[in-house]
Amino acid sequence: MLLSFNDLFSFNSPFNLLRILHLYNCPSKKFISYLPNLTYLPDLSSLNLKICDQSINLNNIYQIILTLPKLKICNIKTNNNLKFSSSSILSINQNLSQIERLDIRGHCDLNECLSIVSHTHQLSHLVYIQTNPIH
After folding, report:
1. Which of 2, 54, 69, 101 is the most buried (most CB within 10 A)?
2. Is residue 53, in this structure, part of any structural domain at all?
């Protein structure tokens, strides 16, 4: 069965029981517009994102991810040229994140990673790989 990106995030979706979601190289305009609808997947516990589009702002993604109520596992892999500033996620209520396993690859420096981690009080497993470190 072939599904469109729109089908996945319709409010009357048959995916209400979806627990694991992998999104790789989705078109940026559609991805950003449907990102808030992840909150309508009540059982989503694992999210894997691979983002290569440089026009995507990761701040918006983290603001949604860190508030998903049942999300336990989150993997985000990007190229190094994406826009990200950890200061914009400081307004997120730190008690909301239930993430236990976090894998961040390629888009932030160590201080930004630590800022994200400060919002994940349930964190028990962290993978952080900066693919193009500054020397």
Report:
1. 101
2. yes
Domain that holds residue 68: 16-107+121-129
Tally of domains in the chain? 1
8 domain-assigned: no
Query: How far apart are the C-alpha atoms of 23 and 38, rounded to whole Å?
Result: 12
Say if CB 68 and CB 47 are below 8 A apart. Answer: yes
Give the pair of three-digit tokens for residue 127: 């993978």
